């Protein structure tokens, strides 16, 4: 599992670097430049009162599949903070309402 996560991180970071995408730090106390818990990302966006950000970069939509299935309203709220959602494996924007 750790190996799979490491590969996802490498591929996603490479995509971001190649496309000049810089991460936004919402919480100065977070350990990583990325989120592994969608609830935490949503909470930080809500508390930061952040304007719409350019994009949310995901390794794949499957990484959020369970969250999207169980919490469709939270997914719509979360995705609303971004102009586009990019799935690195698909290398294309994903529609907000696209849930598998």
Unreliable runs: none
Helix content: 40-55%
The chain-level mean pLDDT equals: 84
Q: How many structural domains does the protein architecture include?
A: 1
What is the global morphology? Answer: globular
Strand content: 15-25%
Element-level helix/strand string:
HHEHHEE
Strand order of the largest sheet: 1-2-3
Give the count of helical stretches.
Answer: 4
Q: How would you sum up the major sheet?
A: 3 strands, mixed
Structure description:
It is a single chain. The protein has 100 residues and is α+β, with helices and mostly antiparallel strands. The chain has one domain. It contains four helices and three strands. A three-stranded mixed beta sheet has the order 1-2-3, with no helix packed on it. The longest helix is centred in the N-terminal third of the chain and has 17 residues, at 2-18. The radius of gyration is 13 Å and the shape is globular. The two termini are 23 Å apart.
Secondary structure layout:
Blueprint: H1 2-18, H2 38-48, E1 53-58, H3 65-70, H4 72-79, E2 82-87, E3 92-94
Parallel strand pairs: 1-2
Antiparallel strand pairs: 2-3
Which features characterize this protein?
3 strands, 42% helix, alpha+beta
Please summarize what this structure is.
This protein has four helices and three strands. The chain is of the alpha+beta class and 100 residues long. It has a three-stranded mixed sheet with strand order 1-2-3, with no helix packed on it.
């Amino acid at each position: 599992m750790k190996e799979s996560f490491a590969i996802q991180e490498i591929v996603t970071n490479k995509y971001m670097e190649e496309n000049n995408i810089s991460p936004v730090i919402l919480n100065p106390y977070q350990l990583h430049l990325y989120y592994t818990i969608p609830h935490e990302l949503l909470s930080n966006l809500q508390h930061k009162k952040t304007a719409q950000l350019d994009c949310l970069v995901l390794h794949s939509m499957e990484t959020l599949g369970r969250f999207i299935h169980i919490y469709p309203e939270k997914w719509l709220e979360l995705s609303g903070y971004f102009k586009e959602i990019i799935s690195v494996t698909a290398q294309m924007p994903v529609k907000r309402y696209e849930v598998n």
